[in-house]
Specification:
- The complex is a heterodimer of chains A (192) and B (300).
- The longest helix of chain A is centred in the first third of the chain and has 16 residues, at 16-31.
- A 7-stranded mixed beta sheet of chain A has the order 1-9-8-5-4-2-3. In chain A, strands 7-6-10 form a 3-stranded antiparallel beta sheet, with no helix packed on it.
- Chain A has a single domain, classed as Rossmann fold (3-Layer(aba) Sandwich).
- By secondary structure, chain A is an alpha/beta fold.
- Chain A is globular, with a radius of gyration of 16 Å.
- Chain A contains 4 helices and 10 strands; from the N terminus they run αβαβαβββββαβββ.
- In chain A, helix 1 packs across helix 2 (45-56).
- In chain A, helix 3 links the parallel strand 2 (62-65) and strand 3.
- Chain B folds into 2 domains: 9-232, Bacterial phosphonate metabolism protein PhnH (Rossmann fold, 3-Layer(aba) Sandwich); 244-300, no CATH class.
- In chain B, helix 2 crosses helix 3.
- Chain B is globular, with a radius of gyration of 20 Å.
- Chain B starts with 8 loop residues before the first helix and ends with a helix.
- Classes of the chains: A alpha/beta (192), B alpha/beta (300).
- The interface between A and B is large, with 37 and 43 residues.
């Protein structure tokens, strides 16, 4: 996890105007699920993740970092509360490991309490294709992804079984992101 | 905004977009949840703005959390770029967001904040529409308790709202809602689409652009994502219908200024008591007028 510690590291992610651009990309990703958004130029492998975290997190919310992807300095800068995945607003996990946690799903009255899960995948735009449909998608969209264990798809469909409750996924690779809000239906085709 | 009031920009060192970064981050998190749960009224901590609640503070907080250098903003009020509310909001953004362009042409805008209308020109995927909302909850007319309304929304239980519409039909032979027509999004939540006329409601359906709704006083943000089903509540035998712009002989009225027969018209009463009709969307009216004069020139 050298990304946030080296002085030469990309500090753009902490700048308000970068966060504005990253947010617009995140919002477009959620509005058009499965569309792959390239993060602003300059983001290196960890920079991409840092930008997304810095855009979304502050002291008002909690984060569960399941695979220790955030460095100690990153925790200090984010000011985010550390919590267990069962209680966290945001969960950060690796996509190549099957999920073994139960995220918050929200309640019938307040479904926005459902967690946002950030999944670090191998690469977006390559590998096995997921066929997606739902709000934000005209007809059907195909999204290729590597480094996403099929168990994630299974777990997601369980978590999102009772709309409006559910979780929203952000997939991030080294320099791109895509989102799968709870309304998106996935028809799998051998994703690896 | 008070004309004598000036933002002390230099001394106070306001952030880009007036709101501090924590406020923006909170609005942004609410937007992502609102898009993920189409039509759900996501609560957020609406900040004090230097203008009264009810003057578009909800829409403005959305705009300020979204906008960045490179964006082109259009602000309209009842279709017009030049009415007081639109001019003031646009001026405020110009003051607090250096590097942002403003425009009146719908096609040039990347971000459109609007009160009471959806522009006539079809929006694209590159555009974003923010609507100002006075009353976000369509169930408030049938259920006073917010706790109960939230359960009804969660269960998708709108029977009482349908009863209200049915009572209208019994009394008046038609549904008498002229604006803020309750609309069901993605088959679940029913929203108040803000005080847009019925004419604009079908534009929510399968829109190419993301549409965001901000209620500042009521502290709610909700969304109609692109390519999403939006159905106005109606009955099989009493279908939803939009405003009727036909005159007594059954011909569609035209705009008195540009001659367009395909736009939403405002009724204007002249000094003599006569009625005349004009496009409500001032940019659309100007475009039609320009096209017409270009056509006249070409044929001359």
């Amino acid at each position: 996890m050298p990304e946030l510690q080296t002085p030469a590291a990309d500090t753009q992610g902490w700048m308000p105007l970068t966060q504005q651009r990253v947010f617009r990309q995140l919002m477009n990703a959620f509005a058009y699920p499965g569309r792959i958004e390239p993060l602003c130029p300059g983001a290196d492998a960890q920079g991409a993740l840092t930008r997304i975290l810095a855009t979304l997190l502050d002291g008002e919310v909690s984060l569960a970092d399941l695979d220790a992807q955030v460095s100690p300095l990153g925790w200090a800068r984010l000011e985010v509360r550390r919590d267990v995945p069962e209680r966290s607003n945001f969960v950060l996990a690796r996509g190549d490991r099957a999920p073994d946690f139960q995220p918050r799903l929200g309640t019938l009255e307040s479904p926005e309490g459902g967690a946002t899960v950030l999944v670090r995948v191998g690469a977006l735009g390559r590998g096995g294709e997921l066929r997606l449909s739902g709000p934000g998608i005209r007809g059907e969209r195909r999204m290729a992804v590597t480094g996403l264990d099929p168990a994630w798809i299974e777990a997601r469909s369980q978590w999102n079984g009772a709309f409006p409750m559910g979780v929203d996924l952000i997939l991030v690779d080294d320099r791109q992101l895509a989102a799968l809000p709870r309304t998106t239906r996935i028809h799998t085709e051998g994703a690896r | 905004m008070n004309p004598g009031y000036e933002l002390p920009l230099d001394e106070a060192a306001y952030s880009f977009g007036f709101l501090d970064e924590y406020a923006k981050r909170e609005v942004r998190r609410a937007i992502l949840k609102a898009v993920s749960i189409p039509g759900y009224q996501t609560p957020y901590a609406s900040r004090e703005m230097p203008m009264g609640r009810g003057f578009g503070t909800g829409g403005l907080q959305l705009t300020l959390s979204l906008i960045g250098p490179g964006d082109t903003l259009k602000v309209i009020d009842q279709g017009s770029d030049d009415s007081v509310n639109a001019v003031n909001l646009r001026h405020f953004v110009e003051l607090t967001c250096p590097g942002v362009d403003t425009a009146e042409r719908t096609a040039e805008a990347t971000l459109i904040q609007s009160r009471h209308r959806i522009p006539e020109a079809p929006l694209t995927e590159e555009q974003l529409l923010v609507l100002q909302v006075p009353y976000p909850d369509p169930l408030v007319v049938v259920e006073p308790s917010e706790g109960k309304r939230k359960i009804m929304h969660g269960e998708g239980d709108y029977s009482r709202l349908l009863t209200k519409l049915y009572e209208d039909i019994v009394q008046f032979d038609e549904i008498t809602i002229s604006h803020r027509y309750p609309t069901r999004i993605n088959g679940h939540y029913v929203i108040d689409p803000s005080p847009i006329p019925r004419y604009d409601v079908p534009r929510l359906h399968q829109s190419r652009a993301l549409i965001l709704f901000g209620a500042g006083r009521e502290k709610r943000i909700y969304a109609v994502p692109p390519y999403t089903v939006a159905e106005p509540l109606a009955f099989e035998d009493v279908p939803f219908r939009t405003e009727d712009f036909r005159e007594e002989h059954g011909n569609r009225r035209a705009c008195a200024r540009c001659g367009a027969k395909d736009s939403f018209l405002d009724e204007i009463i002249l000094d003599g008591g006569e009625k005349t009709y004009q496009c409500s969307d001032s940019d659309y009216c100007n475009q039609q007028l320009a096209m017409r004069s270009a056509a006249v020139e070409a044929s001359a």
